[in-house]
Design brief:
The longest helix has 21 residues, at about 30-50. By secondary structure, the protein is α/β, with parallel strands linked by helices. The protein contains two helices and 22 strands. Strand 21 (about 190-195) and strand 22 (about 200-205) form a beta hairpin.
Length: about 210
C-alpha cells in the first residue's frame, strides 16, 4: 500500500488548483491563507521586480502565467483581479478591478494597448489582439507591416471561451460575447453577440436572460 501524500504534496496540489481556478483564492479559509498569502506575495514581488507591472491589492497571479511588460508597454491590474495558469499577457494593458483572466487566455496590447473595465470576465482560451498584419500581395507575409489601433472592453463584460476580439474593436459595458465568437466590429452596451463574424443576437436586459 502506497503511503498517503504528505502535507507538502497536498499543498502543492492546492497551489495548482488555485492557479487554474483563481476564483477559489477568495474563498480560502484562514488555515489556507496562512500559506497562500505569502506564496502570492512572493510570486507577485518577483513579477514586479522583473517586468513593468503594477498590481492592485489582493490580486492573484498564477506563477504559470506568461506576463511580459517593458517600459512603454506596461501592465496595470486593478485590485482583486486574477490571472490564471498559462494565460499570456503582453503590454500595454490597463485592466480594472475584479477582472478575471482565465486559463490560456491571450491578451496582446500591440502598440496602442488594451483597456479592460471593472468586473469583466475573460474566459479560457479567449484571444484579444490589439494589432493586425497587412496583406500586401507584393510582400512576403513575414515582411508585412503591422498596425495597432487598440481594443477597449467595457465594465461587467463577459468574453466567452475561445472567443476572439480583433484590433480596433470597442465592446460596450455589460455586453456578452458567446463562446467561439470572433468580434470584428464594435459591440453595443448590453448586447449579446455570437458567430463568426459576431453579430448581435440579443440584449442582456431581455426577460429571457433573467434567472427564473
Amino acid at each position: 500500500m502506497e503511503p498517503a501524500p504528505s502535507p507538502e504534496q497536498f499543498r502543492e496540489q492546492h497551489k495548482k488548483r488555485l492557479s487554474w481556478m483563481p476564483w477559489l483564492y477568495f474563498s480560502l479559509k484562514d488555515k489556507h491563507l496562512v500559506w497562500a498569502r505569502p506564496w502570492q506575495q512572493a510570486v507577485q514581488a518577483q513579477l514586479m521586480a522583473q517586468e513593468t507591472v503594477e498590481l492592485g491589492e489582493d490580486c492573484f497571479i498564477a506563477p504559470e502565467a506568461g506576463i511580459f511588460a517593458q517600459l512603454g508597454r506596461g501592465i496595470v491590474l486593478g485590485s482583486r483581479s486574477t490571472v490564471a495558469a498559462h494565460a499570456f499577457l503582453h503590454g500595454p494593458l490597463s485592466i480594472g478591478r475584479n477582472v478575471s483572466i482565465n486559463a490560456r487566455a491571450s491578451l496582446d496590447g500591440g502598440a496602442v494597448g488594451i483597456t479592460v473595465g471593472d468586473d469583466t470576465r475573460i474566459a479560457s482560451g479567449a484571444c484579444l489582439y490589439a494589432f493586425d498584419h497587412q496583406l500586401d500581395p507584393t510582400r512576403l507575409i513575414r515582411e508585412q507591416p503591422v498596425r495597432s489601433r487598440g481594443i477597449v472592453v467595457g465594465k461587467d463584460v463577459w468574453i466567452g471561451a475561445q472567443a476572439g476580439v480583433t484590433d480596433g474593436v470597442t465592446i460596450g459595458d455589460h455586453a456578452a460575447v458567446a463562446m467561439g465568437a470572433v468580434v470584428t466590429h464594435d459591440v453595443p452596451a448590453w448586447a449579446v453577440v455570437a458567430g463568426v463574424p459576431a453579430r448581435v443576437i440579443g440584449d442582456r436586459r431581455d426577460e429571457k436572460y433573467r434567472l427564473g
